[in-house]
Each structure stands twice: as C-alpha cells, then as structure tokens.
Specification:
Order of helices and strands of chain A: EHEHHEHEHE
Helix content of chain A: 25-40%
Number of strands of chain A: 5
Strand content of chain B: 35-45%
Strand order of the largest sheet of chain A: 4-3-2-1-5
Number of helices of chain B: 2
CATH topology of chain B: Translation Initiation Factor IF3
Radius of gyration of chain B: 11 Å
CATH class of chain A: Alpha Beta
Number of domains of chain A: 1
Number of helices of chain A: 5
Oligomer: heterodimer
Distance between the termini of chain A: 30 Å
Shape of chain B: globular
CATH architecture of chain A: 3-Layer(aba) Sandwich
Strand order of the largest sheet of chain B: 1-2-4-3
CATH class of chain B: Alpha Beta
C-alpha cells in the first residue's frame, strides 16, 4: 500500500430499469475507481434499487443488442465495489431485501449522510 | 532504456474504457514488486487513464510510446 490514506468515492444511482441507457455508467466509473485502489460504494436510491432485483442484471440490456447489465455490475463487484440501499427506496419500488441480489447492504438516511460527509467525493447519477 | 526487463505483457488492444485500467489493476498484482509490465492499448483514453492510475496507485509509468495507433506503456509495480 502507498503511504497515502486510501481515497473513497461514493456514487449515487438514481435511475433504474426504466432507463437502461442510464444504468451502466455508474458501474463503469466505480470499477475504474476501484481499479485505482480507491474504495468505492454505490448507493441506490429513487428507482436505482430496481437494478438490484434478482434476475434483472442478467436480462437488462444497456443498449439494444449490447451487453447485459450483469457484465458491468460483476466487473465492479469483482473489484470490491460495495452496494448500498435504504428501506424507503425499496418500498418505493415494492422491493424487499430478499428480492435483491446477494451482498447488498442496507443503510439508513443517517448512515448515508455520514458516508457523504466522510468520503472524499460523492458523485450522483 | 533498452535494458528494461519486461515481466509480462498485457494486451488491451481493441478494448475500451474501463477495461484497460481494470485489466492493468489485476495484471500489476501478478508481477513482482519492482518488476515491469508492458501494456498495449488502442483506446486513446488509456493515455490520460494511465496517468491517473499512476497518480492514484503509486505504480509508475516509466515509458510511454505510440506507433501505428497502438499505445505502449511500461508500468513498474512499486508496492
């Protein structure tokens, strides 16, 4: 490890299955950051959690005839990117934790705001 | 500079962002500390990306060149 403190970026993903073209960028950038040894989290809110519904990443095509979302999502997760949701945004999309892919962490509004204050940068999509 | 020993070559020709940096991140861990990785890429974005990679990770791009649309980088693992 370098002597410098590890840098951290928190991404916020606000769109979901309703707009496939907006679904992959966050995973691209998160993976790129993680590849540079940045600690990365993605917080899914508004319709963002719909991307995490079990079965969705394998079927959602970012672009017609293109790769599925799972390709980009797995790439980010392989590099250690962590996924977060909060309860109200699950309710908004009629989802429960059990409906989501494995490994998603539940946090609340206080925890999100605390992360936002502690991370080096917060980037919203 | 022709004395540099290349431990491994990573061929990223034809790959676009973010794949070259992701592959580099994995490949650099497979060589010994102090060893040099040769990376080939065709994505013009890989030039600023490798600059960012070395700034953030501390690994060093010790040589960079371009020929026939192919960028060649020598990256030294520093940690």
């Amino acid at each position: 490890m370098s002597d410098d403190e590890v840098k951290r970026i928190l991404y916020v993903q606000t769109s979901g299955v309703e707009s496939p073209a907006r679904s992959a960028t966050v995973f691209f950038l998160a993976a790129s950051a993680a590849a540079m040894d940045v600690e990365v989290g993605i917080y899914f809110t508004q319709t963002g959690p719909t991307l995490l519904q079990r079965g969705t990443p394998e079927t959602l095509r970012v672009k017609q005839g293109g790769a599925t979302l799972s390709h980009f999502m797995d790439q980010a997760r392989d590099l250690g990117v962590r996924f977060y949701v909060c309860q109200p945004s699950l309710d908004l999309n009629d989802l429960k934790m059990g409906d989501l892919i494995d490994g998603v962490e539940m946090i609340g509004g206080a925890a999100f705001n605390n992360m936002a204050l502690e991370y080096d940068r917060v980037i919203c999509f | 500079m022709s004395e540099i020993q290349i431990a491994a070559t990573l061929d990223c020709r034809g790959l676009t962002c973010p794949m070259p940096v992701i592959k580099l991140s994995k490949a650099i861990r497979t060589i010994e500390k102090g060893a040099v990785l040769e990376m080939l890429a065709t994505d013009p974005g890989s030039v600023p990306d490798l600059d960012a990679f070395q700034k953030q990770t501390g690994h060093a791009v010790i040589e960079q060149s371009q020929a026939d649309g192919v960028f060649r980088f020598l990256v030294k693992r520093t940690k």
